[in-house]
Amino acid sequence: MDIIDKIDISRLPKHIAIIMDGNGRWAQQQGMDRIFGHQNGVQSVKETVETCAELGVEYLTLYAFSTENWQRPKEEVSALMDLLVSTINAETPVLQKNNIRLAAIGDIDSLRPNTKAELEKAIAETAHNTRLTLILALSYSSRWEITNSLQIICKKVQEGKLNPENITSDLISQHLTTAAFPDPELLIRTSGEYRISNFLLWQIAYAELYFTPKLWPEFRKNDLYEAIIDFQSRERRFGKTSEQINP
Ligand code: IPE
Ligand code: IPE
Ligand code: MG
Q1: Which of 2, 5, 8, 21 is catalytic?
Q2: Residue 149 within a domain
Q3: pLDDT tens digits for 67-94?
Q4: Cα of 152 from ligand 3 centre, angstroms
């Protein structure tokens, strides 16, 4: 029996989010520099996107660059931005062919003008696609996002457009950069680190967390299948009792 046959296609997570970690360590294992690891991580991105589309996952969010990652050495930041632009350019036709829509969350205005322009072009070109929405988290951190949303909400209150009593959990969700997407149901982190690193803190309130020791450049189709199979073995209770879930 192939591993894919263990997946119940009728119970797929609608939205998978991934903290793609371990590129630097993978490169170091090969005696190469960290940038080599980022370059090889692109293959894992391609395979993951393709697999999600084939299975019928509707949303895939990839943590590609955090607010805190700006503090890395200048050469590494620069290489990551160049890689982002070259990958977007090379892959946009593939996204089109596979009916995949590109989207981005994060402080997009903080990207270099050419990076931002290429990204926005690819987002516009793929806007009508309907199969899978691929969301890149770029210059993203959850605390940045929540702070930003608070500023917008407070301004509305100040201008008399919003009554504080009408600030609900849903209203807060609508002011995050993820407003157009459902919350992730499965969060995967590679590289054996057990932390969230400022990713989607609000949105993962009830996500199932899955950690794998695999480094991101080694992450393959079967690793994604295994994460989904593990997800499907969990009982998601949302605060209720097991008996309430299975009457
Ligand atoms: C993840 O791999 C990619 C980014 C954060 C951009 P790392 O570059 O963090 O690799 P490690 O964790 O140092 O091995
Ligand atoms: C998280 O990885 C950010 C991305 C995967 C883009 P990091 O490597 O930056 O996280 P920490 O520093 O280990 O927490
Ligand atoms: Mg890391």
Answers
A1: 21
A2: no
A3: 999 999 999 999 999 999 999 999 999 9
A4: 31
CA 91 – ligand 1 centroid, Å: 22
pLDDT at 119 over 90: yes
The ligand with the least distance to the CA atom of 34 is 1
Q: To which residue do tokens 């940038």 refer? A: 35
**Does the annotation count 230 as an active-site position?**
no
* Tally of domains within the chain: 1
Residue 159 falls inside a structural domain: no
The helices-and-strands tally (H runs, E runs) of the chain is 8, 6
Rounded to an integer, what distance in angstroms lies between the CA atom of residue 41 and that of residue 26? 10
Residue at 1 is within a domain: no
* Cα 55 to averaged position of ligand 2 atoms, centre (Å): 27
With a 6 Å cutoff on the Cβ, whether 198 touches ligand 2 is: no
Task: Specify the ligand 2 atom closest to the Cα of 21.
Answer: 5
CATH number at residue 22: 3.40.1180.10
Percentage of the chain beyond pLDDT 90 is 100
Do the Cβ atoms of 54 and 224 come closer than 8 Å? no
- Cβ count near 14 (within 10 Å): 14
Q: Which two tokens stand for residue 86?
A: 């070259």
Residue having the nearest C-alpha atom to atom 1 of ligand 1: 21
69 annotated active-site: yes
Domain assignment of residue 102, given as a range:
12-141+182-235
Q: Could you tell me if residue 148 is inside a domain?
A: no
Q: Name the pTM for this structure.
A: 0.98
Beta-bridge partners for 137: 63, 105
Question: Does residue 175 line the site of ligand 1, with CB under 6 A?
Answer: no
